[in-house]
Amino acid sequence: MVDTIAIAIALTTAIVFRFGALDAKQGTTFYLEIAAGIGVAWLATLAATGTYESRFFGSGPEEYKRVISASLRTLVLAAFAFYLIKLDAARVFLGSALVLGLLLLLLGRWGARMWLVRQRFQGHLTHRLLAVGAPSSVDELVLELQAHPHAGLAVVGACSPASEDVTGMAVPQIGTLDNVAAVAQALEVDAVVVTSAAEITPRVIREIAWSLEGLGIDLIIAPSLSGVAGPRITMRPIGGLALLH
């Protein structure tokens, strides 16, 4: 909704700037149709670029980077389309619309982030996590996330190697490395975050990733433990942590 309003204001303002008024007699109907097409394409590009993925909300620069990237892509595509149909008169309209639109998008996202952060400080709108790793690593993770509530990540349980002593852990141990997916489903978590442990190897991480396929549960791992690669991996810095999604 915030993005739609921002884009609508930007496109309408650009038409007024170009023609002086929204007057059909001045031939603005054609540009209104073009503006509607650009607006739809802009929103579609924002969605395709991943700006609506919840993992980017509330912290880090990735959300803003993707908004800028999507806006620049829209500018390039629209400029190319105008070139093909020889619509040179639309350059001023396009330039002013994209510049104002980008500023409004970033301002709207910032405002939405401030509201979200306030909600998270009150314990609302957080993501439930299942931590996997040695008790000491899990405790360190819990303390780090508690120190940065704006990230909206809360550990609700843990799966530690069967050989580990789990006495005094900051969160209850619910399972072991053998039943991570089952525990994640039972706790209805949003993501599984893997910390360090001697028993956790790249092969174990891949097996956990495979077991989570199709469950709608994200996998978050520490960079030194990844053992996986691909275009779907993104980094999210939170305090002293660098989490890979």
Question: Could you explain how this protein is built, in words?
Answer:
With 245 residues, the chain is α/β, with parallel strands linked by helices. The protein has 2 domains: 2-121, no CATH class; 127-244, NAD(P)-binding Rossmann-like Domain (Rossmann fold), CATH 3.40.50. The protein contains 7 helices and 7 strands. The protein has helices at residues 2-19, 28-48, 62-84, 91-121, 135-146, 180-187, 202-212, and strands at 127-132, 153-159, 173-175, 191-194, 218-221, 235-238, 241-244. The chain has a 5-stranded parallel β-sheet, sandwiched between helices. β1 (127-132), α5 and β2 (153-159) form a beta-alpha-beta unit. α1 packs antiparallel against α2 (28-48) and α2 (28-48) crosses α3. The model is unreliable at 224-231 (pLDDT under 50).
